[in-house]
Amino acid sequence: SDAEAMDSVHNKKKRESRINTSGNAKRLAVLSKPELPLILCGMIALIFSSLSSLAIPAFFGQIVEVLSTTGDINTLNNSTMALVIIFVVGSLATSIRAYLFTLAGQRFVARMRNELFGAIIKQDVSFFDQSRTGELINRLASDTQVLQNTVTVNISMAVRYTIQIIGTIILLFVTNWRLTLVMLAIIPVLAISAVFYGKKVKLLGKEVQEILAKTSTTAEQVISNVRTVKAFAKEEKFVAIYGKDVHESYLLGKTLAIAGGIFSGSVFLIAQLAIVLIVYIGAKQVLNGQTTTGNLTSFLLYTLTVAMALAFVSSLFGDFMQAIGASDRIFELMDKIPSIPMSGGQVFSNPPVGEIELNDITFTYPTKGSQVLKNISLKLQTGTITALVGPSGGGKSTIVSLIERFYDPDSGLITLDGVDIKQIDLKWYRGIIGYVSQEPLLFAGSIRENISFGIENASMEDIVAAAEKANAHQFIEQFENKYDSYVGERGVILSGGQRQRIAIARALLLNPKILLLDEATSALDAESEYLVKEAIDRLMRDRTVLVIAHRLSTVVNATTVLVINQGTISERGTHDELVKNESGIYYNLVKRQLGSN
Ligand code: ADP
């Protein structure tokens, strides 16, 4: 485990050095192109507000000049009026700027979220075997949020203050070039420290996001398995595990806070010392008659503006670097091209016969070293039922996953009507396959939506007909809102048998050529059991059926029974044939009523 730790440190180093700052920044700029009109209008408003703040010190200078020398009431009135107008225009421009940039940011992040979600959901099943749900959700929620702030507020602020800094420095030169030179000598010191700080924050930012993701994963797993956690009274244990993750992110946050504290403190100190120095030199100039009090006042106000702007820009720099860290994680996902593409490839012009053949299939899970299937050959013919039985872990579900093309085999060929399924358009192919799982999950939504899931514009008659055949119509009619009853959180609660019948109705409505069925192992009450069985029998009629069987009645009726053991087909035949071999696996499974796994 020491070696493991070393390895993870090494990987982290590698990852850090991979963050491509300018590449990511460019890409963010390109991605925000649709927001360009908003951003440009925002920029115009921003220039107005920046210019207005540039004009303020000049007029204050004039007022001081009136007080200290001329005493001209007209100049006082005019300057005050000018200041009022400048403030009004400036505030108006500021609120327009804030509105436009925030809007642009919201739009940008909405688009990024959609794109990222699209990229995630299109990944191969193997990707989800390897990714933690919480981490993916975190990328969607919090990484995109970090980007929103940067693309909008931070960039607009950076532009605003940059304009202010450049404009003010020009005005400073005009007002008093000697003092300006003194001031400019201090700027490189600030710039260098900002760069150091930015680098540190960029790395810390990425780490913070990663640990946050880990924390979400833990919470997600515990909350979604809360019954198990409670049944084993492990609440305290998970509170501790979660607490450890939170503590880790807290420690990083603390480092970030220390870095931020030191940085802003020192920037502040340097800036203030600079002002003291300038006041001192400027006061001497006034005493020597080199400049006037009004002129010095303007100069000091300009200096304050520059100092504030500089402090702000450097803190934005940190935020910006944090966003680069977040964008790196987002782009990594967006760039991941699934190896099993959803579209492209052949679409049959005639309805398929529906014959599936596996020819000498060998398969290893991308996440796992050892071979799960070895030299599997089988043929599923139209109108037949093929039952897979065998000990748990033997490879039955894996065969189903390969037929769905959730994974591609290491070697061997899977064909539909003689055509390699890799040549077939995946969306079309999956459209002709129906799948009913052991523990069907329903989506939050109405019963009607759950039945018509996967079929656009299904008519109500078809939905009801499917529900009737699935023995679901009766219980649905008993709900207050019937087919519009909401399932899921705060909706009607369905029993296991009812959920299965909804799933069967869903498959019946799809009316697939090929049906993959994972029989439920969990026992239902006798009545429910009968209704489900009857519905499944109707569903299996006139299709190519592959069933992972747990019931004796299913295997007795199957055309062919395949015993899958340790990744191979160890017995093959009808129930009557196989049950004769008293030393076979099948005989023993039947003796235990198949229900053991
Ligand atoms: P069965 O359906 O017969 O119980 P499975 O096909 O589920 O068997 O499992 C066969 C083997 O593949 C088991 O050793 C199991 O641990 C492994 N396995 C199943 N699913 C995955 C997966 N997503 N990633 C890695 N290994 C898996």
TrEMBL record:
Q: What are the protein's GO molecular function terms? A: ABC-type oligopeptide transporter activity; ATP binding; ATP hydrolysis activity
Which residue ranges does UniProt annotate as crossing the membrane? 36-60, 80-104, 181-198, 256-279, 299-320
**Which residue numbers delimit the ABC transporter domain?**
356-591
Q: Which GO terms describe its cellular component?
A: mitochondrial inner membrane
Where does it live in the cell? Mitochondrion inner membrane
Q: Name the principal localization, coarsely classed.
A: mitochondrion
Residues annotated as signal peptide: none
Q: Which top-rank group of organisms is this from?
A: Eukaryota
Going by the UniProt record, its keywords in alphabetical order are: ATP-binding, Membrane, Nucleotide-binding, Transmembrane, Transmembrane helix, Transport
Give every ABC transmembrane type-1 domain span: 42-322
Protein name from the UniProt record: ABC transporter B family protein
The answer to whether the entry has keyword rRNA processing is no
What membrane topology term does the record carry?
A: Multi-pass membrane protein
Ribonucleoprotein: present as a keyword of the record?
A: no
Instruction: Enumerate the Gene Ontology biological process terms.
Output: oligopeptide export from mitochondrion
Q: State the organism named in the record.
A: Polysphondylium violaceum
